[in-house]
Write a structure and sequence with these properties.
The chain has three helices and eleven strands. It has helices at residues 16-31, 43-52, 59-64; strands at 69-72, 81-84, 89-95, 98-103, 115-117, 120-122, 129-131, 137-139, 148-149, 151-154, 157-160. By secondary structure, it is an alpha+beta fold. The protein is 20% helix and 27% strand. The strands form three sheets. The chain has a four-stranded antiparallel β-sheet with strand order 2-3-4-9. Strands 5-6-7-8 form a four-stranded antiparallel β-sheet, with no helix packed on it. Helix 1 (16-31) packs across helix 2 (43-52). The structure holds FE2/S2 (inorganic) cluster. Residues 106, 108-111, 123, 125-128, 141-142 line the site of FE2/S2 (inorganic) cluster (FES).
Length: 161
């Protein structure tokens, strides 16, 4: 599946350092999306993402500064989505040709959401789910929606800011 990294942290054992590792893997995925996986590795892709982020020291700061990164539209399944941890972003396609993007940081306690299936974004830590069209909470314990981001289609790529 496209949103599976094969390295999803255990809910309560993941420390910040592990999470940062996953972000790095996600950063690689942005530049090397292919064959439906985000777990590809390659330092060139990571450098490209860092470059696109204006040499920002973290994905959070790049997102905050409005930096943009391209994601292949074809890698976002209808009814599903792609989690780009390096950008703290989840991109969804609720209906064909309609793309949405939200913060991938769960509003409960800050875990990264890790999957999107059947138009539902899931957080692995405590089970919160969010509507992939609106970011609204479907099931708690989260009580606030995922903040929406801007996503634009550019050819066969998506730009999230
Ligand atoms: Fe997401 Fe608790 S951090 S449900």
């Amino acid at each position: 599946m496209i949103s599976e990294h094969g390295t999803t942290p255990a809910p309560d054992r993941s420390g910040l350092s592990r999470r940062q590792t996953f972000r790095a893997a996600g950063a690689v995925g942005v530049g090397a999306l292919g064959a439906g996986t985000l777990a590809a590795c390659g330092s060139e892709a990571e450098e490209a993402v860092e470059s696109a982020a204006g040499s920002a020291s973290s994905a959070a700061s790049s997102a905050a500064s409005g930096a943009a990164d391209a994601i292949k539209a074809a890698d976002v399944p209808v009814g599903g989505g792609v989690v780009v941890e390096s950008l703290e972003t989840v991109v969804t396609q609720p209906t064909e040709g309609e793309y949405k993007a939200f913060s991938s940081v769960c509003t409960h306690q800050g875990c990264q959401v890790d999957s999107v299936e059947e138009n539902t974004i899931r957080c692995p830590c405590h089970g919160s789910t969010f509507d992939a069209s609106t970011g609204e909470v479907l099931t708690g314990p989260a009580d606030k929606p995922l903040p929406e981001k801007s996503v634009t289609v550019d050819g066969d790529g998506l730009t999230v800011t």
